[in-house]
Design brief:
17% strand; eight-stranded parallel β-barrel; single chain; 10 helices; alpha/beta; disordered N terminus; globular; 254 residues; 36% helix
Length: 254
């Protein structure tokens, strides 16, 4: 009979998508800290490099989407970004909530919280973004509790060349055979630790292929109870959700 520790190990991680974004403004310290209180094992967040070089946490480069500012995150210095309100769009309760830097998120979270860092860029040579993320991971020595994901394979290939110890996950939302994903990374010899497919792409075939090749499967964005239960039964490694409290209750029953 398996021990409780072994059974718990087999359950997927509960990863809060941009924090507890249904109860606090997404990608803010308020959302990340609330996610921990709601039972999340970790958080998923989005990063851009701002004009002064810091990696800041937000989902969109357009400041109008989540703040009272205008222009591009990537064209704005950190000091100016910190003067903007990233909370009032959600509720007056969160008025003047600031955009956090990646370092501030790491400093604020529990030392055992897992961090899925998504690097957002379409650049063909995202050198500065890669170097900055790699530097932060190394400086904080969080290799054991982080993974860097991206839809942009160039980011992951460059990260592997920069620091082979950084765990990497490839994000995708269209049906891609695993061998075609491996072909994308073959020339750079980059080693993926995980595949991050949209949840609708996951079935028994993908799970068997991933397990046989040694990949973890971390999936997104899963908000319905039935789908959560189905993915747990399939054996995925992480479930990224907008409702970490709901997933926590289901995992606790298991």
């Amino acid at each position: 009979m398996k021990s409780l520790v072994e059974l718990l190990h087999e359950l997927p991680k509960n990863i809060a998508h941009r924090g507890a974004r249904r109860q606090a403004p997404e990608n803010t310290l308020a959302a990340f800290l609330l996610a921990e209180k709601l039972g999340a094992d970790g958080v998923e967040l989005d990063t851009f490099r701002c004009a002064t070089g810091e990696m800041v946490v937000t989902h969109d480069d357009d400041l109008k989407v989540w703040s009272n500012g205008e222009g591009k995150v990537t064209k704005t210095p950190l000091k100016a970004l910190k003067e903007l309100d990233f909370g009032s769009h959600f509720s007056s309760e969160f008025a003047k909530e600031q955009i956090p830097t990646l370092q501030e998120v790491i400093d604020s979270l529990d030392k055992n919280s897992f961090i899925n860092i998504e690097v957002k860029t379409l650049a063909l040579r995202p050198i500065q973004e890669v170097l900055e993320v790699a530097k932060i991971i190394k400086l904080n020595n969080i290799y054991h509790r982080t993974i860097v994901s991206s839809f942009n394979p160039i980011v992951l290939r460059m990260l592997y060349k920069t620091d082979v110890k950084i765990p990497l996950g490839f994000l995708y939302q269209f049906k891609l055979p695993i061998y075609s994903i491996e072909y994308i990374f073959r020339s750079s010899k980059a080693k993926l630790q995980a595949l991050h497919p949209e949840s609708r792409l996951i079935g028994n075939t993908l799970m068997k292929q991933a397990i046989s090749r040694g990949y973890q499967i971390n999936t997104w964005t899963v908000n319905e109870t039935v789908e959560m239960q189905h993915l747990i039964s399939l054996g995925v490694d992480s479930i990224i959700t907008d409702y970490p409290d709901k997933l926590h209750k289901i995992l606790t029953k298991h």
